[in-house]
Amino acid sequence: MILEQLQNPDDIKKLSGDELKELAQEIREFLIEKISVTGGHLASNLGVVELTIALFLSFQLPEDKIIWDVGHQAYTHKILSGRREMFDDLRQYGGISGFPKRKESPYDAFDTGHSSTSISAGLGMAQGRDILGQNHYVVSVIGDGALTGGMAYEALNNAARMNRNFIIVLNDNNMSISENVGGMSRYLNGIRTGEGYNGLKRIVNSSLEKLPVVGKPLIDKITRTKNGIKQLVIPGMLFENMGITYLGPVNGHDIRALQKVFREAKKLDHAVLVHVLTKKGKGYAPAEKNPARFHGVSPFDVKTGKLKEEKKYPDYTDIFAKKICQLAEKDPRIVAVTAAMPDGTGLKAFSRRFPGRFFDVGIAEEHAVTSAAGMAAAGLRPVVAVYSSFLQRGYDQVVHDVCIQDLPVLFCIDRAGLVGSDGETHQGIFDYSYLTSVPNMSVMAPKNLWELQDMLDFAVTYDRPLAIRYPRGQAYRGLREFRAPVEYGKGEMLFEEEDYALLAVGSMVSTAEHVREKWKEAGFSCSLANGRFVKPIDTELLDRLAERHGKLVTLEENVLQGGYGLAVTAYVHEHYPEIKVLNIALPDAYVEHGNVSLLRECLGIDSDSVIRRMRQFFLEEDTDGNMRRDG
User: Fold this and answer.
1) Taking a C-beta distance cutoff of 8 angstroms, is the pair 46, 90 a contact?
2) d(CA 534, CA 489)
3) Is 393 considered catalytic here?
4) Disulfide check for 239: which of 220, 244, 324, 325 has CB 3.0–4.6 Å away?
5) Cα–Cα–Cα angle for 342, 348, 349, nearest 5°?
6) Residue 308: its pLDDT value, please?
7) Is the confidence at residue 220, as pLDDT, over 80?
8) Residue 195 has pLDDT above 60, yes or no
9) 466/301 Cα distance (integer angstroms)
10) Under a CB-based contact definition with an 8 Å cutoff, are residues 47 and 276 in contact?
């Protein structure tokens, strides 16, 4: 195999054209084989194999810098930069990340994970290069889906002022995760399919190539001319009119054509955008047919494309998806908003049943939040379905446009808590902290699937900002017998005894249930309460717990700083200073990728770890080494 013969990244430059084509096929086979075992981002990586090969051929890495937008399409980049043998542990705890990581390799120029950032980062790196008197190339690779994000336009606006080379590669596959939406998608589609430009270019090139001696130089001159054929045939030319030279579109699966256009791009002394057309999922029929399903995929059977482990029970996303449609049937004011995630957030069914009340704004969380605020101000009941780590991108809009005006926008926050293999950029471990700090915002977290349904019933009738936060994965089916009506700001007592009390919210209620069982087996009396509301905290419930318990444990799947536990502790210490409070939460750190169960154990929030923490905190050794109860 050619792939196995590559000992260092520069070896690729020794291959012939035919060998490069064979290499591309081998890389696709390698990716399909490995990702079918570990899971990961498949369709996006299959689409950029030739593009990545061309970048390694055209630039001198790692001296030259490549910044991958989002970064989930950087698997071929990792293979070619010496990490092929590490792919058995891709996205596994202690293994290589599914995204670029500077600490992992000098070939990874910038850490990425969220969309629409690469032009800004690349521009900053190019400006640093110029100030420091360096001479390397900087290349930002951004997808057409990422161009729906406003940050990309802020960066383009400033890139137009560059007076030294800066290359932007637009990887255009007409997809983000789901199919692209909006004006930019239509604009690029016009370029993509514009027969006037492409047809005329083919005719001119074909005619000039027949001219001896002068034909090829004339073609090269026309290609380099800023006000060339494309200016005459494609009205507007958005990028050119901004001051950024546009080259393309070019076939993103033709390595020679890509090398040629990169040679042209390197000659320019200002910003240049290279428009590359690729096919998401290329080379694997199931991924080509359904690229959204194979965007981020669990382990699957290569022959059939079917997941190796199908879902046995609904997850929280499924519960939300079904319930919000039921509520929308009853209330025509309910509308749904998503930022390019109709599948991931469960709104696909809503979009089919209520197309006029469904809004996919593309990768534009800031716009999603403020447009929802506008809808609420107009009298609608908007539901913004978003991943926890992506809502961070709309934080200012939550503060400024929703909560200052006290508008009834419901945020349904999926993938909250530890999400696992996508790592630091995707762990939803900050939302309690950043939402509870905002006046007028209330935050809820369900203990199981039935409580999520009840919270949604409550939420659509609540006339102020509200967030419901739930984790990734199978919805908890325990504690069904406890289903007290949802009242604003009220938790619920599940088991009431004395001495020790566990007070948990959201996903940690099930953990607390197991902790209680183990603590009672050890001979201790223990109560369990479900906080339900992270903000406001239920002070009446805390007063009730204080009457019969001298030791309190809070449990949450969020960082400690700014979280639920510290709010509870502040109240208890002010009113009941004699009560000892132990906070179980995540550390003040970014959490690496890995299996969620393993991460919970490593971070000390699984039931066995909580038991150990309780023993250390509440129990002390006497002088003879025997364990005694505190107090």
Assistant:
1) no
2) 8
3) yes
4) 244
5) 155
6) 87
7) no
8) no
9) 41
10) no
Residue 630 above 60 pLDDT? no
**Neighbour order of strands in the sheet with 334-338:** 358-360, 334-338, 381-387, 410-414, 466-469, 442-444, 533-535
Q: Tell me how far apart the alpha carbons of residues 631 and 408 are, in angstroms, rounded to a whole number.
A: 47
- 414-448 pLDDT, tens digit each: 999 999 999 999 999 999 999 999 999 999 999 99
User: 586 burial class (0-12, 13-18, 19+ CB within 10 angstroms)?
Assistant: buried
- Is 43 annotated to bind a ligand? Reply is no
Contacts of 15 (CB under 8 A, 6+ apart): 2, 23
Asked if residue 103 lies in contact with residue 134, where contact means CB atoms within 8 angstroms, the answer is: no
Q: How many CB atoms lie within 10 A of CB 144?
A: 24
In the numeric block, which tokens belong to residue 304? 């059939």
* Helix (H/G/I), strand (E/B), else coil: 23: helix
| Residues 107, 7: Cα–Cα separation, whole Å | 15
The annotation status of 365 as a binding-site residue, yes or no, is: yes
**512 labelled ligand-binding:** no
pLDDT tens, residue by residue, 355-411: 999 999 999 999 999 999 999 999 999 999 999 999 999 999 999 999 999 999 999
pLDDT at 631 > cutoff 50: no
> Which one is catalytic: 101, 348, 365, 469?
365
Share of the chain above pLDDT 70, in %: 88
115 is in an annotated binding site: yes
pLDDT at residue 463 above 70? yes
Catalytic position from the list 129, 393, 447, 532: 393
Question: What integer is the mean pLDDT of 571-576?
Answer: 98
Give yes or no: 63 in active site. no
Tell me the residue ranges of DSSP E strands in 452-520. Answer: 466-469, 492-495, 499-504
Catalytic site residue 104? no
Contact by Cβ (8 Å): 3, 23: yes
Three-state DSSP string of 566-617: HHHHHHHHHHCCCCEEEEEEECCCCCCCCCHHHHHHHHCCCHHHHHHHHHHH
Number of Cα atoms under 13 Å in the Cβ half of residue 308: 11
Q: Residue 309's pLDDT band (boundaries 50, 70, 90)?
A: confident
Q: Is 113 annotated to bind ligand?
A: yes
For the segment 118-135, the average pLDDT, to the nearest whole number, is 97
| 88-107: pLDDT as tens digits | 999 999 999 999 999 999 99
Mean pLDDT of the chain: 91
Of 75-84, 190-199, 551-560, 570-579, the least confident: 190-199
* pLDDT score at 221: 58
Among 78, 280, 282, 323, the one annotated catalytic: 280
Q: And the tokens for 207?
A: 């005619």
30 three-state secondary structure: helix
Gap between the Cα atoms of 516 and 555, Å rounded: 12
Query: Which strand ranges, in their side-by-side order, compose the sheet holding 526-530?
Result: 492-495, 526-530, 499-504, 549-559, 580-586
Measured distance CA(276)–CA(251) in Å, rounded: 6
- Residue 462, annotated as binding a ligand: no
> How far, in Å, are 179, 272, 336, 339, 375 from residue 380 at the CA level?
26, 43, 10, 19, 5
Q: How many angstroms separate the CA atoms of 48 and 54, rounded?
A: 10
DSSP states of 333-390: TEEEEESS-TTTTT-HHHHHH-GGGEEE--S-HHHHHHHHHHHHHTT-EEEEEEEHHH
pLDDT at 622: 35
